[in-house]
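// run 5 | inverse folding | seed 20
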């Protein structure tokens, strides 16, 4: 019970600090867990119901990682963004994220020989990196180890666990049916 009260107070103080220092509009229903590890640009917008949760321990034991959430300039999340971080989640500049998107850079242990899955340690990935200008559609799940390259589009309802690294790569296509999106100037040029 004391831990919940402490986290609630820390989250409330962090929201006030973000409002005062960065001039951010931070709705009162945003959850910030271990806010000292969250670095948010001054002109970022977080919609209602967003949760930025860093974890430096699991089941009372240290993870061995220092969590870090970095949000770039002109970032915009509408509502329901959930970021769960044990290593690092870096979101570039000019990134819009639609509602109900989840980013998780760790996984619970899945050793079947253990009596209980909660007894196995976390499997912490290399983190999540989202490049500048990436657009992420509604209801997406982005898992640890993902690198999404600059100007990529992740369509609504997608799960991202491979790497989407090339510019103009449309990652939201189902299965392996991905196509490159050419800049408008290239599409107009018929001499090639």
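// decoded
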């Amino acid at each position: 019970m004391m831990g919940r009260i402490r986290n609630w107070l820390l989250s409330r103080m962090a929201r006030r600090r973000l409002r005062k220092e960065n001039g951010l509009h931070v709705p009162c229903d945003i959850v910030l867990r271990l806010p000292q590890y969250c670095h948010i640009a001054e002109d970022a917008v977080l919609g209602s119901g967003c949760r930025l949760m860093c974890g430096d321990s699991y089941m009372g034991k240290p993870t061995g990682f220092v969590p870090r959430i970095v949000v770039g300039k002109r970032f915009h999340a509408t509502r329901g963004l959930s970021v769960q971080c044990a290593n690092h989640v870096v979101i570039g500049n000019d990134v819009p994220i639609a509602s109900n998107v989840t980013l998780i850079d760790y996984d619970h242990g899945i050793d079947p020989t253990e009596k209980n899955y909660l007894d196995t340690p976390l499997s912490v990935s290399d983190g999540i990196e989202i490049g500048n200008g990436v657009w992420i559609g509604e209801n997406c799940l982005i898992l640890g180890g993902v690198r999404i390259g600059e100007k990529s589009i992740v369509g609504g309802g997608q799960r991202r666990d491979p790497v989407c690294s090339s510019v103009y790569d449309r990652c939201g296509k189902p299965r392996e049916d991905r196509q490159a999106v050419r800049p408008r100037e290239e599409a107009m040029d018929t001499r090639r």
